[in-house]
Amino acid sequence: MNKIDGKAILMGVAFGVMWASAFTSARVIVQYAPPLHALALRFLVSGVIGLVIALWLQQSWHLTRKQWIAVIVFGIAQNGLYLGLNFIAMQTVEASLASIIASTMPLLAAFAGWAVYRETIRPLGIAGLLAGVLGVALIMGARLQGDVDLFGVALCGISVVSLTVATLAVRGASSGGNFLMVVSLQMFVGSAVLWGPALAFEAWDVTWNWQLVVAFMYTVLVPGLGATLIWFLLVDRIGATPAAVFHFLTPFFGVLIASVLLGEQLGSMDVIGVLIITAGILAVQLSKQKPKP
To answer: Higher model confidence: residue 177 or residue 119?
Structure first.
């Protein structure tokens, strides 16, 4: 693994913007289409596009055993549970709040990395992670004082645990190459997982308009393929726990994009929380640098 260098930071920020924007596009989609149907179709389309490109690049689907296991776990945990629960929740939960809840994942990933893989976290890194959580708590505290659907918030919370599992599962798929093939296959897994509950519990009730079409295609190409591929490359470059730190960018970009495009309110606590989160990111990044002899 490489240390967090300029290229890794650029990849992390790009991932953060793409990933955070998915909350806004998802919020638009679920206003006009059933969430699980839309998400299952999104993964199917993304998987087909990614598979065609991967084959054109002569990538192989003869993956290692660890890669296959990680593809299945990642497809179920992130695509099926994390995004599935978030899509359902965002029928009543604002995109900005959903993105803030999702950003708590790095602390869970860091704790799991210590508990399961015995990774060492330096005091500065711990302080940075706690600062990030504090910033998220300030933002959430202000939001929860308003009219918030607690059931939707609970679904977002459960989804974060699923995302943590998915993040650590990437360890098995972050070596051996064929990254686009791996991404495409986990899209198919997510689609397969979602079609069952979609057909069982939802009606195909769609309001067709340009907003739905644009949001759907954007979600397929940018957060769906682009962000996921960058995430795999980033984890391969610096490891799962330091890569997870970039999820702390999610509330900043999530709140900003939702405010600009959807008109969701941006309060003073949002600004203060984002500043604390940014400081936490810097602390964690510095803690990962090896001291000079």
So the answer is: 119
Non-local CB neighbours of 283 within 8 Å, separated by 6+ positions = 124, 125, 127, 128, 131
Report which DSSP code applies to 175.
S
Q: How many domains does the chain have?
A: 1
Mean per-residue pLDDT over the chain, rounded:
84
Residues 36-40: what's their mean pLDDT? 96
Burial class (CB in 10 A: 0-12, 13-18, 19+), 110: buried
Q: What is the pTM of this model?
A: 0.83
Angle, helices 95-102 vs 150-173, to 10°: value is 50
1 belongs to a structural domain: no
DSSP letter for each residue of 83-142: HHHHHHHTTTS-HHHHHHHHTTHHHHHHHHHHHHH-----HHHHHHHHHHHHHHHHHHHH
- H-run or E-run covering 231: helix 228-238
Maximum Cα interatomic distance, the chain, rounded to a whole number of Å: 64
Q: Phi/psi at 288 (nearest 5 deg)? A: -85, -10
**Residue 189: which pLDDT band, with cuts at 50, 70 and 90?**
very high
| Enclosing domain of residue 40 | 6-287
Per the domain annotation, does 292 fall within a domain?
no
Q: What's the pLDDT tens digit per position in 122-168?
A: 888 788 888 888 887 887 787 777 778 889 989 999 998 888 877 77
Containing H/E element for 251? helix 249-262
98-117 pLDDT tens trace? 888 887 777 777 777 777 77
CA distances 206 to 32, 197, 216, 258, Å, are: 6, 17, 12, 23
Whether residue 71 contacts residue 51, with contact meaning beta carbons closer than 8 Å, is answered with no
